[in-house]
Amino acid sequence: METSALDFLKEILETPSPSGYEQPVQNVVRRYVADFADEVSTDTHGNVIAAKNPAGPLRVMLAGHCDQIGLIVQHIDENGFLYTSAIGGWDPQQLVGQRLTVWTAGGPVVGVIARKPIHLLTDEERKQVPKLKDLWLDIGATDKEDAASVVRIGDPVTLQLGFQPMRNGLANAPAMDDKTGLWIVVEALRRAAAADLKCALYAVSTVQEEIGLRGARTSAHSVDPHVGIAVDVTHATDCPTINKNQEGDITLGGGPVIYRGPNNNPIVVERLIQTADQRKMSYQLGAVGRATPTDANALQVTRSGVPTALVSVPNRYMHSAVETISLDDIDRTADLLAEFALALNGDEDFTP
Ligand SMILES: [Zn+2]
Prior knowledge:
With about 350 residues, the protein is an alpha+beta fold. It contains 10 helices and 17 strands. Strands 1-2-12-3-13-16-14-15 form an 8-stranded mixed sheet, with helices on both faces. A 6-stranded antiparallel sheet has the order 5-4-9-6-7-8. Strand 1 and strand 2 form a beta hairpin. Helix 1 packs antiparallel against helix 5, helix 5 crosses helix 10 and helix 8 packs across helix 10. It is globular, with a radius of gyration of 21 Å. The site of zinc ion has 6 residues, from helix 5 and strand 13.
C-alpha cells in the first residue's frame, strides 16, 4: 500500500462523521479524489460522487458509506453532565469506560462515559447491563452554564478517534465500519483511473447508511448505474464465541468477502469471482439469504433495479472502539474492484 493511500485511510479514520454530520470527512474525500477523478460533485443529501470517464457507455457505481455510528447531545443537566441518544446501533456496554469527543462549533471537546466503580455497585447492579439512557457524558464542566457555553443540543459525539497498527498487518480504530469501505471505493477509482478504463466508474462516499441506507438511495438515483457494488465490513468469525456454523467462516487476512444471495446479482457475482480467480487473488465467499443491512440493499432496488453485489471486509468487534481489520484485506479489495471495472468493455448485459 502506498504511503499516501495509507495516510488517506488514517485521515478519514481520524475525521468525525456520525450520520448526518459527515461534512468534515467529505471535505477530506473531495480534496483527495480531486487528483485523479474527472468529475467530483456533492449532492444536496451530502453524498460525494467522484467519476472517472463519466461519458463511458456502462456506468459502474462503487458505494462506501462514510458515516459512522455516534451519539447526539440530548440534554445538559444542572451539574453540566450531558445525556445523549444514539446515532446508529450501539451496544451501550461498549461505551462504558470510553473516552469520547463532542464535536462542537468551537472545536472538539473531550469527555468520558463511565459508571459507578465496582466497589459501590450493589450485587443487583453488578448483574445489570447498562442502558444508554442511564449513562452520562462527563466533559469536566462545573455546571450547566459552563457546559452550555461550549456544547449545543444536537452536537454529535464520537468515540475518541485514532488509528492503531497491530501485529501481522492488522489495525484497529473506531469506525473501520465503514471508513475501510470508503477507502476501498476511492482507492479502486484511483487504481483504475491510472489504467485503460472503458466503463464510467463512480466512487460514491455515501451518507447516512447507519440510519437506514439513505445516501445510497439518493446517490444511486442520480448516478443511475448499470452495475452497483457496495463495499462494507462484515463480521470476521475467527475469534472466540462466534459460531461458524451460523455465521460462516470469515477470516481476517483471508481477502475480500464476495457475497451470494438474493441481494446480489448472480452475473456480477460470477464476474467478481472470475476476476479474483484469473488474477490469483484470495477471496472468501459469504452468504446472506435476505436483503442485507448494507448499501447493497438500497442500490439493488433503485429505479427499476440495479445489478448489485456486496463485497465486504472482515472486521472483528464491529461497532466498538477497537474494530479490527487487516490492511492486506482492504488493499486486495481495492485491487479486485479496480480489476473488475477494467475488465468491462461496456457492452455487458447483467440481466439474470
Ligand atoms: Zn457499515
